[in-house]
Design brief:
The protein folds into two domains: 73 residues, Arylsulfatase, C-terminal domain; 64 residues, Arylsulfatase, C-terminal domain. The chain is elongated, with a radius of gyration of 18 Å. The strands form two sheets. A four-stranded antiparallel sheet has the order 1-2-3-4, with helices on one face. It has a four-stranded mixed sheet with strand order 7-6-5-8, with no helix packed on it. About 3% of the residues have low confidence. The chain is of the alpha+beta class.
């Protein structure tokens, strides 16, 4: 009986550590009973101590005191090998597939498309062209990029 309970608790702990896709491609959340870690496509992050801050008001992700916790939780994020690069450009989010297929483009300011169901790349070829030119000029050191003008 104790062995079965131990196995159930271990399985629960493993399941609790699995990442969950949140709003959009490249955005993920890792939750444990204590921590809520959110990693966004542009490499921004949020970390909340759910025991001390259950309403998630104080973001601890950039606090050096919690760097080890961020590193530990970050390892559970999926690699997403189908995406080469994520680029934030103003309100746009560009997603570059690794297979060479055309870039996807989403308008993050468009409220009815929070789950990124509408690829607007064909509607805004000049935005896609600007991002492609920028990527060609800049060697990406990260999968998560922010493009300034």
């Amino acid at each position: 009986m104790l062995k079965r309970l131990t196995i159930i608790l271990v399985l629960f702990a493993v399941i609790a550590m699995l990442p969950t896709w949140t709003f959009g491609l490249g955005n993920h959340t890792v939750s444990t009973p204590r921590w809520q870690y959110i990693h966004y496509f542009d490499d921004r992050a949020e970390l909340y101590d759910l025991q001390k801050d259950p309403n998630e008001f104080v973001n601890l992700a950039n606090d050096p005191q919690y760097a080890e916790t961020v590193t530990k939780l970050h390892q559970y994020l999926p690699e997403e090998p189908q995406w080469k690069t994520f680029v934030r450009y103003h309100n746009y989010k560009a997603v570059v597939p690794t297979d060479g297929s055309p870039m996807l483009l989403f308008d993050l300011a468009y409220r009815n498309d929070v789950n990124e169901q509408k690829n607007i790349a064909k509607k805004y070829p000049e935005v896609v062209s600007n991002i492609e030119k920028w990527l060609a000029r800049n060697q990406a050191e990260s999968k998560f990029l922010i493009m300034a003008d």
